[in-house]
């Protein structure tokens, strides 16, 4: 087992010998944010459903973004509802290439849970490996976990602007949203001036498993990231940026998360870049 990822067979073996493993089902997607119906139809045995919108995100002003980080007290209350106790091993998964499971991983690691793993290959990988599902809800006995945030590096909106100008800030949304060709959700199209495009969906193989570390390292290096320099990541609302954060960690980088991401930036009236060039390349970008 790696210190971040877990294969389906490793999870099956772990749960067979360790009763302290807690499994969280974090199914969520933009077009279907409530994953509970699918969870009830079939989930990994013992898994507890986690609602990303209400339990893994806060709710604030538009300038905070669509999925701001939750208050630590609220996250702790939710984690106790999930049955988490201090010292537990926690495994998170979803049904979409770990894009939303990574958000749970980031929050729990940041809050001090020592052993949090992502099921590599997500639910599809579990089923493909021949492991069973169960139906219905799982309501565990309340846990007693104690959380305190602040262990993973973040970027404020001002720090993100500075890093885009002076270092490497990666926009991990689809390229058409980065270029400003389309923006289906947020109030303005484009990207943070100076940010570079590196779609996080390219960090996994067709089966939704993270690429090998050396391949991930090449991807990040191709976008200009250097292992000895800070690299920031952002997406639309901060959810899939956590996925890019994990990929960067696997590749040997020390990433920083801009949690508010584009949804926060585009609500502040700050300059917006369109096109595909770097900061200051007026032939490729127009600032407004």
Report on this structure.
A 5-stranded parallel sheet has the order 1-5-4-2-3. Strands 7-6-8-9 form a 4-stranded parallel sheet, with helices on both faces. Strands 10-11 form a two-stranded antiparallel sheet. It has 2 domains: 5-128, Rhodanese-like domain (Oxidized Rhodanese, domain 1); 157-287, Oxidized Rhodanese, domain 1, CATH 3.40.250. The radius of gyration is 19 Å and the shape is globular. By secondary structure, it is of the alpha/beta class. It is built from 11 helices and 11 strands. β4, α5 and β5 form a beta-alpha-beta unit.
Secondary structure tally, helices: 11
Category by helix and strand content = alpha/beta
Helix content: 25-40%
Q: Which stretches are low in confidence, meaning pLDDT under 50 for 5 or more residues running?
A: 279-284
Residue-averaged pLDDT: 93
Q: State which percent range the strand residues make up.
A: 5-15%
| First and last CA, distance | 48 Å
Order of helices and strands: EHEHEHHEHEHHEHEHEHEHEE
- What's the overall geometry? globular
Return the CATH class of the largest domain: Alpha Beta
Protein name: Sulfurtransferase
Organism: Microbacterium gilvum
Keywords: Repeat, Transferase
InterPro entries: Rhodanese-like_dom, Rhodanese-like_dom_sf, Thiosulphate_STrfase_CS, TST/MPST-like
Supply database-style keywords.
five-stranded parallel sheet, Thiosulphate_STrfase_CS, four-stranded parallel sheet, 31% helix, Oxidized Rhodanese, domain 1, 12% strand, repeat, alpha/beta, 288 residues, 2 domains
